[in-house]
Amino acid sequence: MGKKLLLKNIDIPGISSYEVYRREGGYKSVEKVLAEKNPEAVVEEVKKSGLRGRGGAGFPTGMKWSFLAKPEGVPRYLVCNADESEPGTFKDRYLMEHIPHLLVEGMITSSYALGANKSFIYIRGEYFYVLRILEKAIKEAYDNGWLGKNIKGSGFDHDLYVQIGAGAYICGEETALLESLEGNRGNPRIKPPFPAVAGLYGCPTVVNNVETIAAVVPIINDGGEAYAAIGVERSTGTKLISASGHIKKPGVYEIELGLPVEEFIFSDEYCGGIINGRKLKAVVAGGSSVPVLPAELILKTAAGTPRIMTYESLADGGFATGTMLGSGGFIVMDETASVLRNLHTFARFYHHESCGQCSPCREGTRWMDQILSNILKGNGKMKDIELLWDIQGNIEGKTICPLGDAAAWPVASAIRHFRKEFEEFIENPAAVKDVKHYYSVNNISEA
Amino acid sequence: MNQTAYINDVAYTIEPGETMLSFIRKHIGKSHVPTLCDAPNLDPFGACRVCCVDVALTPGGNMKTMASCHTPVIANSYIYTENDRIQKLRKNIVELVLTDHPLDCLTCEVNGNCELQTVAAKVGIRDVRYPEGKNHLHTPKDRSHAYMTSDLSKCINCGRCVRACDEVQGELILSFAGRGFDSHIVKGFDQSFAESDCVSCGACAQACPTSAISDIFESKSINFTEKTRTVCTYCGVGCNLDVATINGKVKSIQAPYDAEVNIGHTCLKGRYAFSFYNHGDRLRSPLIKRNGRFEEVSWDEAYDYIADKLTAIKAQYGPDAIGAISSARCTNEENYLMQKFIRAVIGTNNVDSCARVCHSPTAIGMQKTFGTGAATNSIEELEDTHCMMVIGANPTSAHPVTGSKIKQQAMRGKTLIVIDPRRTDLAKYAHYHLQLRPGTNVALLNMMLYYIIAEGLEAKEFIDKRTEGYDEFRTQVLNIDLSKMEEITGVDRALVKKAAIAYATAPLAMSFHGLGVTEHFQGTYAVMQIADLAMITGNIGKKGCGVNPLRGQNNVQGAADMGAQPYQGAGYLDVTDPEIHKRYEAFYGAKLPMHEGYKIPEMYDAALEGKFKALWLIGEDIVQTEPNTNKVKASLEQLDLLVVQEIFMTETASFADVILPAATFLEKSGTFTNGERRIQRVNQVVKPLEGTKPDGQIIVEIMNRMGYAQPDYHPDTMLQEISQIVPFFKGVKWNELGINGKQWPVKEDGTDTRILHTETFTRGKGKFRFKDFTETEEITTYGKQYPYILTTNRELEHYNAGTMTRRTNNAIILSDDYLLINPNDAVKHAINNGDMVCIESPRGKVDVKARVTDEVKPGILSTTFHFPEVMINIVTSDVHDEHAKCPEYKVVSVNIRKSKGKYKVT
Ligand SMILES: Cc1cc2nc3c(=O)[nH]c(=O)nc-3n(C[C@H](O)[C@H](O)[C@H](O)COP(=O)(O)O)c2cc1C
Ligand code: SF4
Ligand code: SF4
Ligand code: SF4
Ligand code: SF4
Ligand code: FES
């Protein structure tokens, strides 16, 4: 059994309420930092833990915190990114829904470390029912003196607000989120300046994912070193994985980083293997944005070593043969799945979600959607594959925000690893239209 | 240590913070890197991505593609601007953009001047590889507006229009709606241009790289034969205009980006309201009134007629029976000539200009305090200041380009204090709006001074070193009766205190004032107090502060500078001073009078008394614009000779004996001096309409006809003459003014002056003088019987009497005068929005359409005066500023009732 830090109390009845949460040791990290009165030490502890951002990019959290500018007389803000809209990712929702106080506690402790007297949780619009859960938890925290003026007599004031989004994936990008929070259209900002220097209302701001902030609680309670002792190399601690697709036990799992991918997919403790005894075809390991890998490359690296669930191992081989841990949205496809159809679903998503500022992303996402749609309607042409390759290449690394990359990588990786499927669909439109035909061409047994 | 970076492996020095794009442009050339969303006067946006370059940290090393327009140069980096990868990328991006753009360049209005076209050609697009797909090619055109047009099928989503409206104009009309491929430009709440709150500044049209947003004049089209740079005639901001002409006809106007005054911006008057210039109503021949009817005559006949009459009047009544009102719309050279004609040829000091009715108190007040009656600083210093105080001015309408700059700074969070009876556009952005009762500026400004002193916030060192009279002043200010002042002004003292503290504690504070300060019984006093506020806080003589009157007409500064004032000659020299008198006599080679002449209101009085017989008037519709219309008319009727130089038949011109058809600003050359003392070149754009002549030439011809040898009008030779007599014009030479002009004083070697009073004041030390509040006679005499206070204001769309702007499409946008009335008052009199209201004052009554709004407080009314149908000045009063004789347009005691009739034209 792997160690659990975030979800260890998840099964305790009533853990979403203040009383139970507190009884089980909740808000101790706040007590601790308020008693020690040393915000820098908190930042140091987070640095020591090796915690990396759980929102997708994996940027070291302690380092991000220490970049926060601290000009005289200017407020600083902490913003929690709870916009979680990436297809295949649903871990933050799970955490907020079941242990809302863990996030509230993390927000207070982190804000203390950063010297922020106001913080915000920006939550995805579709999570309106989670909003109610959070608001209740926040109210309980105020009622019990963990929020407000002069918290527990420490002299530290803190107010925590929740803001609900309006249904745009792009508002999960941190600068678009800040724009949206300010009441503007959610367009990502050009960088520099980075939020650490000019974020919310032009003030220094840290934006962190829900899980990142929640992880601060055990780090402060047990010490950074204890946290760093879990995991492998620069992938320390535990990570929530949202597992979905053709597996026996979809759901949210807290794993120790370093868990072998094969074990995660096939052991009964986690996904429990592929449904109906089918064969594994492909995995999108870190949410819809990361490259898709065929079975052989997700289980073992190109060099033949078993892949483990760490930032480094999943990325081994670069984009040629590797992928990314991303936000931990682990989508498993069995042999009946069409990578192309799945890709088209993603492409439609990015076409729909691009903010439209950058011409390559605005026009490119729409063309990728349309070309894939043409292919799937049986109207594809061989040169479409080159055109798709060209478009994704025009987007990747050339846009204001990483949504462009997120839209490009799935296309690039699908062409790289599943070119044959494109060619089949183009050459043999019947195969596209008739699933049975497709299965028979590909020797897939229907269960 | 200078840092370097490499462009295509060649090293160049970088400047801190500069973007790669500006770095590359500076060293390799302006069009080296193609761009679509970048614009000279907008912040980087990073949307089009065609400006991408490759960047490596070692020569030819690992490359990362970056948008050059918004990424700062990295020291010691290697920038590659045209490698294969980048060229392919740019080409592919433009190709993508073209997949949703109509391919009908040849019929497009901007063909040949389209940035998309240029960039597509540069990156070498030949064909588009994409199949047919979803697009925006059928977006309908918008032709709803008097000027603005859109054809958004041509839109490439570069966002330049949105940013121009936000960052340059500050109107926030345009925005993106929809997401991703569906994102598109909307106006207002997804309305047409006409329905939206667009103020027609044209910034978006100029910014748009294609024809997606444009204007009815197709101002981006290359369909013109010539472009001439000149200066706008509509206000004291002095915007530079690039006027395109086709074979001697004006086609369209754009704003040059290299103009220091307006940096690619204008308001709708400057950019679009030019079509009056060849309007059918233009006067085209000299006219003499015989038997009550105007007859066309030759120039010779007109000159002879005038010369004979003037000679006869002079012989019979003496030179002081003759006078002139020069024009703040005319050039410096013309104003100089006018005053010279009156002084040297006629032999009287009876020359004044419309500065009398606007900023004469500013000139006097600032002269008394500082020694020079002109703005101390420059508008561009808004960038440097921390606090802006706007008093009695509505610059977003009256000085739109300056107004939008102030608004921009306020929107970025700088402190803005607005002192105005109306909740003006700027007041909506102000931190402190002191909404005082009209006519109580002096009381309010004393309260400000009180709090600065009481809080110990004076700049003691500055006061000690640079000023005099402070101790007495301090005692008197501290003695004012605060509760009385609070009651008089109607402004909460706590609010005044906060504003005073904000002004005094800002490291740099700039004040701006307009006619709401000057056009009062105590106008000069209020100006002096504004100057006191600047001195007491040390806000003088450095960048980002000062006292900055917003001069109304385009050359109101120049008219006074050139001596169109009855007490001062060219260069503000006192005509009663014997030394100076001698100098002028020697210079003009003529005998001159040594006593002051009549100010404008004194001319009317003298005419009514039968002492004043002949008036020469340039470009001024005094019947419509001067207060107390009926009195003005009566006095004009008393004259033996009224000569009017005009471009249109106006109310006033109809009283004339002789009308001389003049040329417009587009038809002549010369210089205008803007509100920041900037002498700028006005360049002839088209030839004078047949039958008309530049005002300057007309004056020269009459001078010669009356026996004074004056060479033909030419700005070059005129400036040579002026520079010899006007001290602060010493180094002004026509050929050296350059595109951005020079700010006076201009030294002999040609160096000009941005900021006045840096070391000492012109008068030595700055002078503090306490001024007590006195209620205007208008209120003390009539206040009981006529309990409402009417004040006047201007609208963006029209200029003064509207003679010009009413003859353009501006009249479509705004076609009536109207009366602002508080809802409470409206209810009391059963007045609804749009009803005609009869306003009655002790002088007369007029009907105006009501606009019910809480922009004005109960008891206060405000109206515009742009249309002759209303003749609002029938009701305005005869009270004047004691010193400058500037009329009190801003306080009129009136009564109101719902009108029964329709328009009443008296
Ligand atoms: C299009 C897009 C969507 C994103 N959505 C999320 C999100 O829903 N939640 C999240 O935590 N981070 C999201 N991110 C990443 C954030 O920009 C940011 O990196 C993150 O919130 C930082 O937090 P961390 O350092 O704790 O991971 C998104 C990024 C992009 C480009
Ligand atoms: S990459 Fe796409 S989503 Fe991101 S800013 Fe550009 S257009 Fe918007
Ligand atoms: S004309 Fe001016 S106000 Fe109107 S939309 Fe364009 S930029 Fe905005
Ligand atoms: S209308 Fe013109 S300026 Fe505005 S986004 Fe479209 S192309 Fe750009
Ligand atoms: S702001 Fe004044 S000078 Fe500029 S264009 Fe408008 S009217 Fe002309
Ligand atoms: S000019 Fe740089 S992105 Fe458009």
Return residue spans of chain A where pLDDT drops below 50 for at least 5 consecutive residues. none
Output the number of helix runs of chain B: 28
Major pleated sheet of chain B: 7 strands, mixed
Say what the CATH topology of the largest domain in chain B is. Rossmann fold
> What strand order characterises the main sheet of chain B?
15-14-26-25-24-16-17
Estimate percent helicity of chain B.
Answer: 25-40%
Proportion in helices of chain A: 40-55%
Overall shape of chain A: globular
Overall average residue pLDDT of chain B:
92
Count of folded domains of chain A: 3
Strand order of the largest sheet of chain A: 8-7-11-9-10
Strand proportion of chain A, as a percent range, falls in: 5-15%
- For the termini of chain A, the CA-CA separation is 33 Å
Q: What's the average pLDDT of chain A?
A: 95
Q: Which CATH first-tier class of the largest domain in chain B would you pick?
A: Alpha Beta
Number of domains of chain B: 5
Give an overview of the whole structure:
With 447 residues, chain A is α/β, with parallel strands linked by helices. Chain A has three domains: 18-229, Rossmann fold (3-Layer(aba) Sandwich), CATH 3.40.50.11540; 232-334, Ubiquitin-like (UB roll), CATH 3.10.20; 339-441, Up-down Bundle (de novo design (two linked rop proteins)), CATH 1.20.1440.230. Chain A has helices at 18-23, 28-36, 39-49, 61-66, 91-98, 100-114, 128-143, 174-181, 210-222, 224-229, 261-266, 295-299, 311-315, 318-321, 339-353, 359-376, 382-395, 403-427, 429-433, 435-441, and strands at residues 77-82, 118-123, 159-164, 205-209, 231-232, 235-236, 238-245, 251-256, 280-284, 292-294, 329-334. Chain A has a five-stranded mixed sheet with strand order 8-7-11-9-10. A four-stranded parallel sheet of chain A has the order 3-2-1-4, sandwiched between helices. In chain A, strand 2 (118-123), helix 7 and strand 3 (159-164) form a beta-alpha-beta unit. The radius of gyration of chain A is 22 Å and the shape is globular. In chain A, 54% of the residues are buried. The mean pLDDT of chain A is 95. Chain B is an alpha/beta fold and 906 residues long. Chain B folds into five domains: 3-98, Ubiquitin-like (UB roll), CATH 3.10.20.740; 130-277, Alpha-Beta Plaits; 287-353 and 556-728, Rossmann fold (3-Layer(aba) Sandwich), CATH 3.40.50; 360-549, Dimethylsulfoxide Reductase, domain 2 (3-Layer(aba) Sandwich), CATH 3.40.228.10; 777-898, Barwin-like endoglucanases. In chain B, strand 16 (322-326), helix 8 and strand 17 form a beta-alpha-beta unit. Chain B contains 28 helices and 36 strands. The chains are: A alpha/beta (447), B alpha/beta (906). The interface between A and B is large, with 34 and 38 residues. Bound molecules: flavin mononucleotide, iron/sulfur cluster (4 copies) and FE2/S2 (inorganic) cluster (FES). One iron/sulfur cluster (SF4) binds at residues 170, 188, 354-358, 361-362, 399-401, 403-404 of chain A.
